[in-house]
Amino acid sequence: REFDNINEIEGGEFKLSVSCNRQENQINDQWLFPRVMITFKGENDTVNDGSSNLLKTQQGSGQATGVSLRIKRQDGRETVKYGADSAQMGNLGQFALQKQPSEGDKNAQETFKVYYVKDSTKGNLTEGKVNAAATFTMSYQ
């Protein structure tokens, strides 16, 4: 696939899901479910301060240049911004998963789409493999 007159090309997608238990405290005789938050942390010199939405790719022999990856949330508009590997409330880059647990479905989940993006900070666009890595931290808040 080539970047002709576009800046990004849709790649694959992935889904994250976690099963949650109700919290033990009650308000108004109703059990509460935790709010499930997530933070992605990028590898390969990705800026992890909550400001960048580019996941940097590996460099070296056989690797493509001039390209990074972008992960978009389920709605296809909002992009993931990378933060520190921390469960702390208010961590930069942290956000709530789109589907939160409920009495009817105790799963929190979201589907994400990955895009190939032109990135001039990675040099001129050349062919090659595109490999990147990110970890995620989920927290109950």
Automatic annotation (TrEMBL):
InterPro entries assigned to the protein according to its UniProt record, in alphabetical order: Adhesion_dom_fimbrial, Adhesion_dom_fimbrial_sf, Adhesion_dom_sf, Bact_Fimbrial_Adh_Pro
GO biological process terms, semicolon-separated: cell adhesion involved in single-species biofilm formation
Main location: other
One of the record's GO cellular component terms: pilus
A Pfam family recorded for this sequence: Fimbrial
Subcellular location: Fimbrium
Keywords carried by this UniProt record: Fimbrium, Signal
Residues annotated as domain Fimbrial-type adhesion: 8-141
Keyword Signal among record annotations: yes
UniProt keyword Signal, yes or no: yes
Highest rank taxon of the organism: Bacteria
Family per similarity comment: Belongs to the fimbrial protein family.
Protein name as catalogued: Putative pilus adhesin
Protein encoded by which gene: hifE
